[in-house]
Amino acid sequence: MEFSDCIRGRRSVRRFSDREIDRADIERIVDMARYSPSWKNSQTVRYHVVLDGGVKGEIARGGVCGFERNTKTIDSSRALVVVTTVTGICGYEPDGSFTTAKGAGWEMFDAGVACQSFCLAAHSLGLGTVILGIFDGDAIKARLNLPEGESVSALIALGYPRDPAKDAPPRKEVSELLSFI
Ligand SMILES: Cc1cc2nc3c(=O)[nH]c(=O)nc-3n(C[C@H](O)[C@H](O)[C@H](O)COP(=O)(O)O)c2cc1C
Predict the structure, then answer these.
(1) Are the C-beta atoms of residues 44 and 107 closer than 8 Å to each other?
(2) Which mutation among 15, 117, 132 tests ligand 1's pocket best, with the greatest number of atoms within 8 A of CB?
(3) Residue 167 resides in a domain
(4) Cys-Cys with 12: which of 5, 118, 130, 151 at CB 3.0–4.6 Å?
């Protein structure tokens, strides 16, 4: 797939088909996502993939702050990727102080970069994704018994799209986004 087709053609997918995902394809996606840039190459992003339908259903109900749209999306997905970040590294100096005024904000920055790579890699393999930002990280962390030093940064619902791809939602013009100084 051409890079421009991949980046323009990726859409957030919220309805998925019943087709199973091959675990090898999830490994291929993470194999691509791991080449994302990160703070001092710290590579703190982790991917916990929930394939078990029962556990996924529990997160769909108890882990999305009552946001029904996300409940439906997770129920429809074939896998839920819980993207976490190992805390206390991105943005920090060895003595524990912050390197910049952005503080620990770089943790979410690295997670965002990795999520975009993950979604584009999935799209290149014909898989659909949607990043979900409305979730209860503490509830999910407790239910999945995730490592103490990790914080849930995002969820990604994953599966083969049920419907043909739609047009992209409107984008701002380049002239509104770009300035030269
Ligand atoms: C940080 C972030 C959080 C998001 N949270 C949600 C969400 O909770 N639920 C949802 O359905 N979509 C969510 N989205 C998807 C956006 O709505 C979607 O990317 C946007 O409408 C543009 O559509 P496109 O991805 O098809 O280009 C999120 C996207 C991002 C980047």
Answers:
(1) yes
(2) 132
(3) no
(4) 130
What are the residue ranges of helices labelled H in 97-178? Answer: 105-124, 137-144, 174-177
Q: Contact, 160 vs 13, CB < 8 A?
A: no
Contact 131 CB / ligand 1 (< 6 Å): yes
pTM for the structure as a whole: 0.98
User: What would the pLDDT profile of 64-104 be if each residue is shown by its tens digit?
Assistant: 999 999 999 999 999 999 999 999 999 999 999 999 999 99
Q: Return contacts of 99-108, CB within 8 angstroms, 24+ apart.
A: 106/39, 107/44, 107/151, 107/153, 108/153
State both tokens at 11: 């859409």
Calpha distance 56→73 (Å, rounded): 11
Answer whether 7 contacts ligand 1 (Cβ < 6 A).
Answer: no
Whether 181 maps to a domain, the answer reads: no
* 93 C-alpha to ligand 1 centroid (Å): 32
**Residue 105, domain extent:** 3-160
Q: Within the chain, what is the greatest distance between any pair of CA atoms?
A: 54
| Domain assignment of residue 7, yes or no | yes
